[in-house]
Write a structure and sequence with these properties.
alpha/beta, GMP Synthetase, Chain A, domain 3, 2 domains, 13-stranded mixed β-sheet, about 25% helix
């Protein structure tokens, strides 16, 4: 199967390497071998990352859902600024191969638009790349010119969401995982508090924990039980609340760390997370963990005051701790652990 890279049709790994890079060439070679699968890795967010086999037919089916939703054809230009070592980068290449779209390749970086000559119709980025692109006038203008942008890999903060609403680009947060072969739902960031909407014929249920069950008739595995607690609007839409593994039960009140982290995102400039810590009276108490050196007392008081203004009483952290450097998964996601 051929692929168009930077305007040039490539029919071999050597041609891909010459036009783009060795990483692109390796995946192209793997995709075009005789095996029915390619190898991928889970993120490691909730345990050790593991190698899994991604069925090529599933990847094609997933790519078709995205191509159909965004109208991606052989006349479309797409941006690849993510590594094909990960599922997001692999799927951009598959979408290009089955549609005939022109895939513009730039080296993965925090500001992938800085060296871009031609503005793409479609792009996929992580929140950090989007934020960095917004920070400079030149890259902000390029970002505004993109037709459609999907954002995944980490939550989109309320501040970033608000910033994107000032631009004409259509932006969507993605929901999916390696096991579902990229995203199976999208959230339109042009409106406040919109739910995730299923793609294709995907439908949703919840189990007795309140966790999402995904029905995926387009994949070889047609049902996935997740650890994501959601508020289900109907069989096709949901609001994400947080990971079941992270939920804190404090004095009988169920707290979702991810929801609280979103609310205080404008208060803290460093990396941070909240989690439960054993407590004799409450069972678990909510604590805020901030990366880096301990703040001066006056800054801590100011932060506590800001959080009191934003959070309802039972959502307010009972303690603030500092860790010099957070642990991360192989893909850069923060591991919620207070042990350095």
């Amino acid at each position: 199967m051929e692929i168009r890279l930077n305007g040039i049709v490539c029919r071999s790994a050597d041609e891909c390497a010459e036009v783009a890079n060795e990483e692109i060439a390796r995946f192209y070679c793997e995709w075009n071998n005789t095996l029915p699968y390619v190898l991928g890795r889970t993120s490691g967010s909730t345990g050790n990352p593991k190698e899994i086999k991604l069925i090529k037919a599933d990847m094609e089916a997933s790519a078709r859902l995205t191509n159909e939703f965004f109208g991606i054809t052989d006349e479309t230009t797409m941006l690849l600024c993510l590594s094909p070592s990960y599922i997001a980068g692999k799927m951009m290449m598959v979408r290009a191969m089955i549609s005939g779209a022109d895939l513009q390749v730039v080296s993965p970086s925090s500001s992938p638009l800085s060296s871009l000559k031609r503005i793409p119709d479609f792009a996929a980025m992580v929140p950090m790349q989007v934020q960095c692109s917004l920070n400079e006038s030149e890259t902000r203008e390029k970002l505004a010119g993109i037709g459609s942008l999907i954002i995944g890999g980490a939550p989109v903060t309320p501040a970033l969401e608000t910033s994107l609403q000032t631009l004409p680009v259509k932006c969507y947060a993605t929901y999916g995982m390696t096991e579902t072969v990229s995203h199976i739902a999208l959230r339109d960031l042009g409106f406040t508090d919109t739910p995730y909407q299923a793609l294709g014929e995907v439908t949703f249920e919840i189990d007795d924990r309140g966790c999402l069950i995904i029905n995926t008739p387009h994949l070889s595995c047609s049902r996935f039980v997740t650890n994501d607690e959601v508020r289900l609007k109907d069989a096709r839409r949901f609001h994400w609340l947080g990971r079941h593994d992270n939920v804190v039960n404090s004095g009988g009140v169920k707290l979702f760390p991810e929801e609280i982290e979103q609310k205080i995102s404008e208060c803290i400039k460093r990396r941070y997370f909240v989690m439960g810590k054993p407590d004799l009276r409450l069972g678990e108490k909510l604590v805020l963990i901030i990366e880096g050196e301990e703040m001066p007392p006056d800054e801590i008081l100011r932060l506590q005051s800001d959080m009191e203004r934003i959070l309802i009483p039972y959502q307010r952290p009972k303690e603030i701790l500092f860790i010099s450097r957070f642990k991360e998964t192989y893909s850069g996601k923060v591991i919620r652990d207070i042990q350095e």
